[in-house]
Amino acid sequence: MNSSNISELLDSLYSLERLGIKMGLEHTEELLKSIGNPQKRLKFIHIAGTNGKGSTSAHIESVLRKTGRKVGLYTSPHLINFNERIRINGVPITDSGIVSFLEPNWASINKIESTFFETTTAMAFNYFDINNVDIAIIETGLGGRLDSTNVIKPLFSIITSISFDHIDILGNSLEEIAEEKAGIIKKGVPLITLKQNIKIDKVLSDKANNVKSRIVLSDPPSKIKITSSGTEFLQNNTFYKTGLIGKHQAENASLAITALKFFDPKINDEDINNSFIRIVWPGRLQKLGFNIYYDVAHNQDGLKLIINYLEHKYPNKKIFGLFCLKGDKDLGGIAKILSNKFSKLYISTDKNNQLLSGLSLSKTLKKNGVDSDVLSSVKVGVSKLIGLTKKNSVGLIFGTHYIAEEVFNEFEISFDRGII
To answer: Do 280 and 221 form a contact (C-beta atoms < 8 A)?
Structure first.
């Protein structure tokens, strides 16, 4: 196999995005049936939520791998390479693994008119099956009820924090969004979650009761201490530390601990801590250079958390931002979070034009009371931030996964294979 083969196949795979997002399970079920229903031979942990799905998954995966299990992990979107979405023990799917799935199945994919995400979901299940993983951790792509991943029956489900995101698809209220997320709760399958907004809690509780699903609530972390090397916290009279930064990462890690001990009560705190401290999950308050951070947060709650962190850590410093965003977000709500938080906010778009144009994003923000300057590229924006932070200020690059490659290139950060 040569590089042109994999490039052509991935181009064909990405072209399936023209079919858009199809909310429903029929196509996924049909495609899986055509390849022998690999999902029926696998053990799963299923994770939905608005914020923290990836980080919670990463915490669980790291410990299960540490305890000798062969662990599959399916997340989205990727930062640099498509392969990152499908991993076994932290190692992304090989190019040959992608080819060996796509080439013999194109006829079925085209006949069924499977979307990009439906196809990648089937590819993940197939890859985990042929490699005999012990457990597969599956993150929903969008929502839950009609998400392609919801064809599985997991050992248990996890729902992380829920907030406003994808309101054009999931609903205009927290209750409507929670209803969609709650769709992963299945008859007799335990749900592990955390206490949230009273309206969200009621939606999850009602759904769980209706399908006779036991709810396991995670105890919230306390005595949270954030350092340059991670986040320390107390849960159930035990201190833990994760290598990820932020109060929200203590909450994600606490949810992961509850899930791990539910899955296997023999997992000990030493294994948990040894695994957590080594976690690398790029694009989550990732420090790129002197006082410059990158975070993929793109909804109100996520943005509030990262800005609060920077204000707390750098109370007397100016904050400069470089913001890029996809077009399906609640810009009115986001503008409220960004208002008066930056000494200067710069706007750009990605080189592949998958995001809102800088001019369009800036105009909408201005209508909502947030001033910004439009720049021609991420490269120019990074250069601006580097110059400004030399003057003892703080820089934040944020809003999307889609600029990761451009950002990492500017800071000469290697992400060749995306191994975690």
So the answer is: no
Peptide bond into 77 cis (omega under 30): yes
pTM of the entire predicted model: 0.92
d(CA 402, CA 389): 23
| pLDDT tens, position by position, 45-58 | 999 999 899 999 99
Three-state helix/strand/coil letters over the chain: CCHHHHHHHHHHHHHHHHHCCCCCCHHHHHHHHHCCCHHHHCCEEEEECCECHHHHHHHHHHHHHHCCCCEEEECCCCCCCHHHHEEECCEECCHHHHHHHHHHHHHHHHHHCCCHHHHHHHHHHHHHHHCCCCEEEEECCCCCCCCHHHHCCCCEEEECECCCCCHHHHCCCHHHHHHHHHHHCCCCCCEEEECCCHHHHHHHHHHHHHCCCCEEEECCCEEEEEECCEEEEEECCEEEEECCCCHHHHHHHHHHHHHHHHHCCCCCHHHHHHHHCCCCCCCCCEEEECCEEEECCCCHHHHHHHHHHHHHHCCCCCEEEEECCCCCCCHHHHHHHHCCCCCEEEECCCCCCCCCCHHHHHHHHHHCCCCCEECCCHHHHHHHHHHHHCCCCEEEEECCCCCHHHHHHHCCCCCCCCCC
Kindly report the length of the chain: 420
Q: What is the pLDDT of residue 396?
A: 98
Domains of the chain: 3-276 (3.40.1190.10), 286-410 (3.90.190.20)
Cα(188)–Cα(417) distance, integer angstroms: 39
pLDDT digits (tens, 9 = 90+) for 85-99: 999 999 999 999 999
pLDDT at 2 over 80: no
- Cα first-last separation, the chain: 26
Would you tell me how many other CB atoms lie within 10 Å of the CB of residue 188?
9
Of the candidates 239, 405, 302, the one whose C-alpha atom is nearest the C-alpha of residue 52 is 302
Evaluated on CA atoms 133, 136, 141, 144, the torsion sign reads positive
Copy the structure tokens of residue 104.
């013999």
145-113-146 Cα angle (round to 5): 0
Q: What band does 228 get if pLDDT is binned at 50, 70 and 90? A: confident
Q: Which two tokens stand for residue 320?
A: 């400069």
